[in-house]
Amino acid sequence: MAEHVTENGGVPLERKVMVAVDDGEYSHYALMWVLDNLEESITKSPLVIFTAQPPPSSNHSFTAAALSSARMYCSVSANPEYTYTIQDQNRKIAFALLEKAKEICAGRGVDAETLTEVGDPQTAICDAVQRLNISLLVLGERGIGKIKRLILSYLQKGLQIYICFDAQ
């Protein structure tokens, strides 16, 4: 299923693949899909695994994600120390998530680079794709809600996107 992209001389071009992950089963399915179906592409170039950290909230409601998909919601009057604590916790969770994904890749003999950024996931993914010159973005999603805008904008720019909708 891997596609060969070649120059005029027939020399294969490097194809950069990025998987955007979160703590859900659909992004895990997307990662496994890449490992199962894009073996040739990801052995010639490191696979980029990306996750976004929630931005600091301006309305003083904080969400801290956990690896088990549990969420902690608490509405408080934010002070700088508490905001830093939440950001630090989000950073630790993101690094643990990326480390887990990298271990899965290493178990399959795939070299993976990890990247995390703070911000809205759609914006952070778009920025990373542009900055890293990604050829193929793979996302796991249970439906096409918020991701639809991202897909439409990148299809217009010629980026190939594969979305895993079924985690079975």
Search tags:
single chain, alpha/beta, Rossmann fold, 5-stranded parallel β-sheet, two-stranded antiparallel ribbon, UspA domain-containing protein, Rossmann-like_a/b/a_fold
Please describe what this structure looks like.
With 168 residues, the chain is α/β, with parallel strands linked by helices. It has a domain at 17-55 and 94-164: HUPs (Rossmann fold, 3-Layer(aba) Sandwich). The protein is 42% helix and 23% strand. The protein is built from five helices and seven strands, in the order E-H-H-E-E-E-H-E-H-E-H-E. It has helices spanning 25-37, 39-44, 80-107, 121-132, 147-157, and strands at residues 17-20, 47-53, 61-65, 71-75, 112-118, 136-140, 160-164. The strands form two sheets. Strands 5-2-1-6-7 form a five-stranded parallel beta sheet, with helices on both faces. Strands 3-4 form a two-stranded antiparallel sheet. Mean pLDDT is 75; it is low at 1-12 and 58-71.
Quick take:
This protein is α/β, with parallel strands linked by helices. The chain has five helices and seven strands; from the N terminus they run βααβββαβαβαβ.
Q: Note the beta-strand portion.
A: 15-25%
Low-confidence stretches: 1-12, 58-71
Number of strands: 7
In DSSP terms, counting alpha (H) and pi (I) runs of 4 or more, how many helices?
A: 5
CATH architecture of the domain at 17-55 and 94-164: 3-Layer(aba) Sandwich
Biggest sheet overview: 5 strands, parallel
CATH topology of the domain at 17-55 and 94-164: Rossmann fold
What general outline do the C-alpha atoms trace?
A: globular
Task: Enumerate the strands of the largest sheet in spatial order, edge to edge or round the barrel.
Answer: 5-2-1-6-7
Give, in order, the helices and strands: EHHEEEHEHEHE
State the fourth-level CATH superfamily of the domain at 17-55 and 94-164: HUPs
Domain UspA: 15-152
Protein name: UspA domain-containing protein
Organism: Populus deltoides
InterPro entries: Rossmann-like_a/b/a_fold, UspA
